[in-house]
Specification:
Blueprint lengths: L27 E6 L3 H13 L9 E5 L2 H12 L3 E6 L11 E5 L2 E5 L3 H7 L7 H18 E11 L4 H12 L4 E8 L14 E8 L10 E6 L11 E4 L4 E7 L3 E2 L23 H11 L5 E4 L6 H8 L3 E6 L2 H12 L7 E5 L1 H12 L5 H15 L3 E2 L8 E3 L2 E5 L8 H13 L4 E6 L9 H8 L3 E6 L7 H6 L5 E2 L2 E9 L2 E10 L9 H6 L7 E7 L7 E3 L1 E4 L10 E5 L4 E11 L4 E10 L1
Parallel strand pairs: 1-25, 2-14, 2-15, 3-6, 3-13, 7-12, 13-14, 18-19, 19-20
Antiparallel strand pairs: 1-15, 4-5, 6-8, 7-8, 9-11, 10-11, 16-17, 17-18, 20-21, 22-23, 23-27, 24-26, 24-28, 28-29
Length: 589
C-alpha cells in the first residue's frame, strides 16, 4: 500500500521568511510602582550580595518593539505564559490619534511617527509587510505559551482570513478551538453593503491540554418564565428585568463597545480600546488565578487592568510611549493594585543596533561612523581635532553622547571647558539618555561660564531604518524642572514651582501648544522617590490627570521614620510623553 500523502496548505506572500530572529537582550528596570519598602530593601541586598534575586513576582509593563521584547522574554518565560491576547492593528487607514488632557482641557494628540509607521497595516509595502510582521510575532508567541496555554487574536474582516491561515501553519489547524464573533451595535450604516458590525477573535490552543472554564452570560427577558433548576432565574434591579444564566457560545452579542453606554467610566479616548467585559470573559475562560497573562499590543492597558482585578500575573508591552503612560495611570487607579515594574531594553537595544551597523569594522572606525551617522541625522557637519567636539551646525558646535551610556554632568562640564578653550560659545549636546537629575537648568550654569548650551535627546527612531530613510528623525530639547523642598523635623514637603520646555516652536503638536495657558498645563503626571538608592526609580507617591479629575496637585508631604541624609528624586511626565527628573538631597533631623 502506498504511503498516505500528508497534505500541507500554507499562505504565501512576496518575501515570506520562516526563520525568526531570537535576539535575547537583558531588560532594564526603569521604574518600580507600589513596591513595599521591605521588598525593595530585600531586592537591594540581593543585588549587593551578587546573589540571584529571589524577590516576589512583579508584573511587567514593557516599552519597546514587541518582536525584540518577546525574543528577550524567551530566556525566562519560554513555555510559561498561559494566555496571550493581542489586538494588533488591522484597519487600513485607521486613525491612531487619541484624546488627552492638557491642563483641564481635552485635546486630540497625534501619534508619533514611529507609532504611526509601526501600527499601520501597510507600512508602505502593503499586505505582504503586515503578514510578515504578524508571522514573526506569532511564532515567538507560540514559543512563550505553556502546554496548557491559549492565544486569542482580535481581528476584523480586513485580515482575519489571512491570519487564520498563518495560525494554522504555526499552531496547526487542529488547535483552532473557536472562531468567535463579537457582534456589536454602533452608529453608521452603509448604503452599499450590510453594515460591518462584528470583529473576529481567533482562539487557538498550543496543545489539546489547554485550560478552559465555561463562561455564562445574562439572557434577559421582560417577564418571568418557568426555567428548570439548571437555569434559575434572577432579577436585575438596575435594568428592572428578569434573566437567567446562559452558556456562552461562539457569538458574543451581549458586550457593548466602549462609548455606547452613557458616562462609561472605562472610556479613555484611546484608539482600539476594548471593553473590560470582553477581556474578563477571555481571561476567565482561558486562565486561572496566578496564571501569567500577556498582551504584546497592550494599547490603553485593558488586558492588564482586567488581569490585575482577577488576580492574574501579567506581562504587557507596547511600542507607544503614551500607551505605556496611559496603562500606568490606569493601573494606579485600581484599588489594591499589586507592585509592577516598568522595563525597556534601553542601552542593550542600542548596543545591539550599534553592533549591526558596526559589523566588520574596528572599534575606532565604528565610533567614527556612529558619530558621523548621528551628525548627519542632526544635519550637522563633522569636525576634527577635538576630544569632545564632533560637529558644527548653524554656528554651534555639537557633541554626540555615547551609544551605551548616559551623558553625565562631568561630561557636560568637560564639553563646556573644551568649548571655552576652542573659543566657541554655543554648543549642542546630543544624548540617548542623560544622568538622572540633569535638565535644562544646566543651561543656566553654562551661560554663567559664557557658553550657550542646549541639551537634546537622540530619539529611539534613529534605530528605525524606515524613519531614517524618510528623514523623519527629530531631536528634542530637555525640559527644566524646579522643585522646592522644605523640612519640618522628619516631615519633608516637595512642591513643583516651575516646569519649562525650551524651544516649543520645534514641537509638532500645534493643538497642544495652543491649549497651554500656564506652565502647570505641561505636566500630565509626577511622582516622587523619597529615598533614591542610585538604582531604579521607586515610585512611592504620584498624582496625574484623568478625564474625571483633570486638575493636578503640585505639592506633597512625606514623613520619614528616622533622621538622616536622603536623596529625593522627582519625576515629571509631560503632555508630550517625555520624562524629566530632578534630584534633591535633604537632611532630616
Amino acid at each position: 500500500m502506498a504511503k498516505e500523502e500528508v497534505m500541507h496548505t500554507e499562505l504565501v506572500w512576496s518575501g515570506k521568511r520562516k526563520e525568526v530572529d531570537r535576539v535575547s537582550l537583558p531588560f532594564q528596570t526603569i521604574e518600580t510602582v507600589n513596591e513595599s519598602k521591605a521588598d525593595r530593601e530585600n531586592r537591594q541586598m540581593e543585588l549587593l550580595s551578587g546573589k540571584k534575586p529571589t524577590s516576589k513576582w512583579q508584573n511587567k509593563l514593557i516599552w519597546g518593539d514587541n518582536k525584540l521584547v518577546m525574543a528577550s522574554l524567551l530566556k525566562e518565560f519560554a513555555g510559561e505564559i498561559d494566555l496571550i491576547y493581542i489586538d494588533p492593528p488591522f484597519a487600513t487607514g485607521a486613525d491612531f490619534s487619541y484624546k488627552t488632557n492638557v491642563g483641564e482641557e481635552v485635546v486630540v494628540k497625534e501619534p508619533s511617527i514611529i507609532e504611526e509607521l509601526a501600527y499601520r497595516d501597510t507600512w508602505g509595502k502593503g499586505m505582504d509587510s503586515y503578514l510578515q510582521m504578524m508571522y514573526d510575532r506569532l511564532v515567538l508567541m507560540k514559543d512563550l505559551l505553556s502546554e496548557k496555554g491559549s492565544i486569542y487574536i482580535h481581528l476584523d474582516w480586513h485580515v482575519g482570513h489571512y491570519v487564520k491561515l498563518i495560525m494554522d501553519e504555526i499552531l496547526g489547524k487542529e488547535n483552532l478551538v473557536n472562531e468567535i464573533i463579537w457582534s456589536y451595535k454602533t452608529g453608521g450604516i452603509s448604503k452599499n453593503a450590510f453594515a460591518r458590525k462584528h470583529d473576529i477573535i481567533l482562539f487557538y490552543s498550543k496543545t489539546n491540554k489547554y485550560a478552559f472554564n465555561t463562561q455564562y452570560y445574562k439572557s434577559y427577558q421582560r417577564k418571568k418564565y418557568n426555567y428548570s433548576k439548571k437555569y434559575p432565574e434572577f432579577f436585575d434591579e438596575e435594568n428592572q428585568m428578569w434573566y437567567h444564566k446562559a452558556v456562552c457560545r461562539d457569538v458574543w452579542d451581549d458586550i457593548f463597545v466602549i462609548g455606547t453606554e452613557p458616562g462609561n467610566p472605562e472610556r479613555l479616548d484611546f484608539p482600539t480600546q476594548k471593553p473590560e467585559a470582553l477581556l474578563e470573559r477571555i481571561i476567565k475562560a482561558s486562565s486561572n488565578e496566578h496564571s501569567i497573562v500577556a498582551d504584546f499590543f497592550c494599547g490603553s492597558g485593558t488586558t492588564s487592568a482586567v488581569a490585575e482585578k482577577l488576580g492574574r500575573r501579567w506581562i504587557m508591552c507596547d511600542l507607544g510611549r503614551f500607551a505605556l503612560h496611559t496603562t500606568r495611570k490606569r493601573l494606579l487607579q485600581i484599588e489594591g493594585c499589586r507592585p509592577f515594574e516598568i522595563l525597556n531594553l534601553g542601552k542593550y537595544e542600542r548596543q545591539y543596533w550599534y553592533t549591526t551597523i558596526s559589523s566588520g569594522k574596528t572599534k575606532e572606525q565604528s565610533i567614527i561612523e556612529y558619530i558621523r551617522f548621528i551628525l548627519n541625522l542632526y544635519k550637522a557637519e563633522p569636525i576634527s581635532g577635538f576630544q569632545h567636539l564632533h560637529g558644527r551646525k548653524a554656528g554651534r558646535v555639537v557633541h554626540v553622547g555615547a551609544v551605551d551610556a548616559p551623558v553625565t554632568l562631568v561630561e557636560v562640564e568637560e564639553v563646556i571647558d573644551e568649548c571655552k578653550k576652542a573659543k566657541q560659545d554655543k554648543i549642542d549636546i546630543l544624548g540617548w539618555e542623560f544622568e538622572m537629575g540633569i535638565d535644562a537648568e544646566v543651561e543656566k550654569q553654562a551661560k554663567a561660564k559664557g557658553v550657550k548650551l542646549r541639551l537634546l535627546k537622540i530619539p529611539r527612531e534613529v534605530m528605525e531604518k524606515r524613519m531614517v530613510e524618510l528623514g523623519q528623525v527629530e531631536f528634542y530639547d530637555l525640559a527644566a524642572l524646579k522643585v522646592d523642598m522644605n523640612t519640618n523635623k522628619q516631615d519633608v514637603t516637595a512642591e513643583i514651582k516651575h516646569f519649562y520646555i525650551p524651544h516649543l516652536d520645534l514641537v509638532k503638536e500645534e493643538e497642544v501648544r495652543q491649549k497651554i495657558k500656564k506652565w502647570q498645563d505641561y505636566i500630565d503626571y509626577w511622582a516622587v522617590d523619597w529615598d533614591f538608592k542610585e538604582d531604579t526609580f521607586h515610585n512611592q507617591w504620584q498624582d496625574f490627570r484623568t478625564r474625571k479629575e483633570p486638575s493636578l496637585e503640585l505639592k506633597t508631604k512625606y514623613a520619614y521614620d528616622k533622621p538622616g541624609r536622603y536623596k529625593i528624586v522627582v519625576k515629571v511626565v509631560d503632555v508630550f510623553g517625555n520624562d524629566t527628573t530632578k534630584i534633591e538631597e535633604m537632611t532630616v533631623k
